[in-house]
């Protein structure tokens, strides 16, 4: 039984986007393992508190991720 665990920074994705992630990730798993696995494929989306996720020694906030998604870069 597949378990797909996704961690995201809180406040970045809406509930509707999380629902779409669950659907899309389930579909991706089923495309590999077969339709019979759909009812037993688990997807868990965990929100990580803003600032509690870091890359390269620098914490990321919700605002940082939204800026990246918008194509904004620091300078």
Radius of gyration from the alpha-carbon trace, in angstroms: 15 Å
| Structural domains: how many | 1
The ordered string of helix (H) and strand (E) elements is EHEEEH
Structural class: alpha+beta
Residue windows where pLDDT falls under 50 for at least 5 positions: none
Largest sheet: 2 strands, parallel
Report the helical percentage.
25-40%
Q: How many strands appear in the DSSP assignment?
A: 4
Q: Can you identify the CATH superfamily?
A: Macrophage Migration Inhibitory Factor
Averaged pLDDT: 94
What is the percentage of strand-forming residues? 25-35%
Global morphology:
elongated
Oligomerization: single chain
Strand order of the largest sheet: 1-2
Report the CATH topology name: Macrophage Migration Inhibitory Factor
Broad CATH class = Alpha Beta
The CATH architecture can be named as: 2-Layer Sandwich
Distance between the termini: 45 Å
Notes on the protein architecture:
- By secondary structure, the chain is α+β, with helices and mostly antiparallel strands.
- It contains 2 helices and 4 strands; from the N terminus they run E-H-E-E-E-H.
- It has helices at residues 15-33, 62-69; strands at residues 3-9, 42-48, 53-55, 58-60.
- A two-stranded parallel sheet has the order 1-2.
- The chain starts with a strand and ends in a 6-residue tail after the last helix.
